[in-house]
Amino acid sequence: MRHFQTCLAAALVTLAYPNITSGQAPLTAPPSAGVLPPKPGAVVVHAAKHATLQEAFDAVPDGGGVVLLPPGNFEITQPLRVKTSETRIVGAGAATCIINKNDKGEPALIIRPANLDTDKKAVLWRVQLADFRIMGQEKSGDGIVAEKVQEIYLEGMSVDHHGGNGLSLLQCFEDARVADCIFTYNKTNGINIFDCHDIVVNANHFEENQDALRCVDSFNLCMNGNNIDDHLRHGVIIENTYGSVVSGNMIEECNGTALILDRDCYGITLSANVIAHHLEGGIDLRDAHGCGVSANTFTIAHKFSVRVSKDSGRNTISANNFCNTYIGGGKDKRPAEGKTPMSIDEGTGVLLEGAEFCSITGNTFSGLSTAAIWSISPCRGLVVSSNVATDCGRKLPKDSKWIALDDAKASVVKDNVME
């Protein structure tokens, strides 16, 4: 039967394209394949045929084109500049490495309209970077600075060891996309976003930057499926941004806090993230309203798993799991004491510092050193219901309350299971 199907498929291909014989690729595609002539003015630039990388970038005309980078290490002392729209720069993977030797804090690569200083409305469109590495050092600046570039797209890039940010997106207002890249050992942020809109940051790796990602004065950030590990300060910082989603990320081992919303954030969903092993906390709603915190897993957060400040309100915290390293059978995976905070068992709950009009429902709290939910400043308008708590308050005085909200006004605390 399989032999018959193979012969039939071959016969159908031969009938459709009679010039193709078995084992031979066609020299030209048939008209129905949609092959079009190159865009007028667009070119293919082989960087290996030019004296410098900058010369290769300058060879791209206004009509755009593709620059093919060969394997090799390419040392630079001044920023490389890309000034044309419709331009794609492609390397040979990590074998293509641009090394920034500049010691005056300048970036490795700047993507920016050539006339931006004289025309504030100038923009570039559809610049793409793919499959090469940009490496800096402590005295260099950012790895990549993109300013006023619409529909910028980075894929498969390695950006590491820079004295500033790995990637800065500045007023790249329309549809910035960063996917399948790795940002490591940068002295500031892995990605720094300022005044952008409809930003997609998906399936990237962030390791040992100061902070993984900072998004400021923007909206519609879509950050999903990223792996964020071992950061020297915080994981994700979002300020003055709305209408965004941060979901399905793994955020582990920050010396500060995993995820911070600050400075007039609203309408943001933080969902289905694994937030593990943070010396300070998990999610910190410093100045956030109308946000949802749901279906996240918090473990080994040392001071709090979720904190809601007096400047935050109207938020929902539901269906999350707050836990320690318990693995069943009366056993914790990590010891109660250790040489470093990162080496010990820990679990914390929800800390409220004067929060207003929040619902905290349907969560599970277990194995916590703290109470499940507690306040240190008077709160108002809370609904705390249908939560499950067990084995909480391990480091609290005996008989301490696991839901400690006695000072909350105009609030409902009921139907919680505590065992």
Automatic annotation (TrEMBL):
Lyase found in the keyword field = yes
Q: Which GO terms describe its molecular function?
A: lyase activity
Q: Write out the entry's keywords from A to Z.
A: Lyase
- Classification via SUPFAM superfamilies: Pectin lyase-like
Indicate whether Lyase appears among the record's keywords: yes
Q: Which InterPro entries match?
A: Beta_helix, PbH1, Pectin_lyas_fold, Pectin_lyase_fold/virulence
Domain Right handed beta helix stretches = 169-322
- The name this protein carries in UniProt is Parallel beta helix pectate lyase-like protein
